[in-house]
Write a structure and sequence with these properties.
five-stranded mixed beta sheet; about 60% helix; globular; binds zinc ion
Amino acid sequence: MTNPLLSDWNTPFNLPPFEAIEDAHVKPAVEAALAEGRAAVQLIASDPEAPTFANTIEALERSDSTLSKVLGVFYGSAGADANDTRDALMREFSPMLSAYSSEITSNSALFARIETLWETRDTLDLTPEQARVLMLTYRSFVRSGAKLEGPQKARMAEIKSRLATLGTGFGQNLLADERDWFMSLTEADLEGLPQFVIDAARAAGDEKGADGPVVTLSRSLIVPFMQFSPRRDLREAAFKAWSARGENGNANDNRENAAEILRLREERAKLLGYPSFAAYKLETEMAKTPEAVRELLMRVWAPAKEAAERDGAILAEMMAKDGINGPLEPWDWRYYSAIRRKAEHDLDEAELKPYLQLDRMTEAAFACAHRLFGLDFEPLDVTTYHPDARAWNVTRDGKHIAVFIGDYFARGSKRSGAWCTAMRSQQKLEGDIRPIVLNVCNFAKPSKGEAALLSYDDARTLFHEFGHALHQMLSNVTYGSISGTSVARDFVELPSQLFEYWLEVPEVLEEFATHAKTGAPMPRNMLDRLLAAQTYDQGFATVEYIASALVDLDFHDGDAPADPMVAQAETLARIGLPHAVTMRHATPHFAHIFSGDGYSAGYYSYMWSEVMDADAFEAFEKKGAFDPETARLLEEHILSKGGSQDAEALYTAFRGRMPGVEALLKGRGLLTA
Ligand SMILES: [Zn+2]
């Protein structure tokens, strides 16, 4: 029998044949793809012909096409729909894949060919994109240790494989802790909660097989619970469970994991001759150095902390008026902040929510993409990896551009958070390959027959991930390795954060924020209040974020801490984190930096990108939010370009210059603070 992961798909848009793919197909497919990749790499390395760009770099780009095809499907769906078998496969694959990539980068015959090309690059008559791919390939080999020899080389391979295992384990521990915990609520405990929280708690209870409503650790349930539950004891219990993820002293405890990861990262950087892991990691980013990162974060920290302290004092006073003595605690902030927001902006999340229907907000994102870039979205009647995941055919002037999959509802098998991933990336080396792009979120699933409703934060998340999706879908490069979101980490959030601004364009909400029951548009004064409230509580949001970003930077800049929890406490004490604010992600559940390498020494990237997105949207504001010429420049210089040029060059081509930090401070309402 043929393995559907390996066969020619012959499906509409060459979509994976999900209905035929079973878990049992995955491992044999990965093994076959690895064997094929190894054979291809061996052919390149032993080629008797002198190295050329085509027989070495392009051949290398092609060598893993089957592997990318198989892994794209497996990881694309397993992250959103895990089970024990898939978890076990991921644990098994991570050292296998790490060994495979180590094998390639430590293949000295192969590296010799790449090095020859690199040294003679000026004579090769390369296109700018080819020159870029050669540079990136050479650099990634060197950074992987291609120049190491003997025991150092062996040690590097060992470290990488161990790090891959630890990273996978970190994420799985976190998911297990999140899956296991829930808090049962009695009918009396529901008092004071808005209907949508009650509905979500009941739906979560059904999903957990509990005997009634529950609070889980899913962000879209626990955050509104802490905003609205008048029961301080319940808020405290929920908050403590939420912040203890990965730190429960059980089999899922991540603290030792984190410590070992930091030690190995430091060792890895030093083997390569860098003073620290941060220096190694930031070399390929826009920021370039830890000092540049620290400068940006501290520049924003001072006004943000001032704002948070002012706000905290007001909230503490409100709490005292409720007859509660003692300091404002982290489980009090969101509750009193929601009351204050309602008082000052008369904005009630529960009143707002019926106007933010998932389906309408999805249409809003599509409509913006249509007005800006001429994209059309047509629902596809196809089977995906899960019944909740829906697919659309994305076209422009009738031409197929991409398949977009939106998988929006929380479920136990999905890891927390929201993300965008490409099951297949755009490239032109092997024909006009069009991408399959996924947006995965964790919005509360409605009860049967009800419309799915979002919070405003959820709606922003939807737009954010859709911005990443546009970066993938509009990609127009030749080589898959630089396609779509394959850009510097501190540049990758620019398209996503920029797209969030269109949610705040009044005409978008006017058209798409319609009431789930009555169909009436959002009342004008509610819309005005909503938009005016966008800078509300930005002190808190900025402080919890920068605290995490600085802890991440400190962990990786200098020697690895013996005890990360102690180091975390030291950093927080040094910057003076206000008592009632905690890190957005504390170490034992800081998946961004420990579950894989993605955001290590890189959590600052969101803010680095924000400096640009705030400035980029100003370009639209000057000429109109849907100005076609500005949209064209954005697509031409940024969204279509992937990593084909240095990020600074891309931004400068779009905007004519690099931005300062002012637009960001203004956007967060911190400029006058
Ligand atoms: Zn993002």
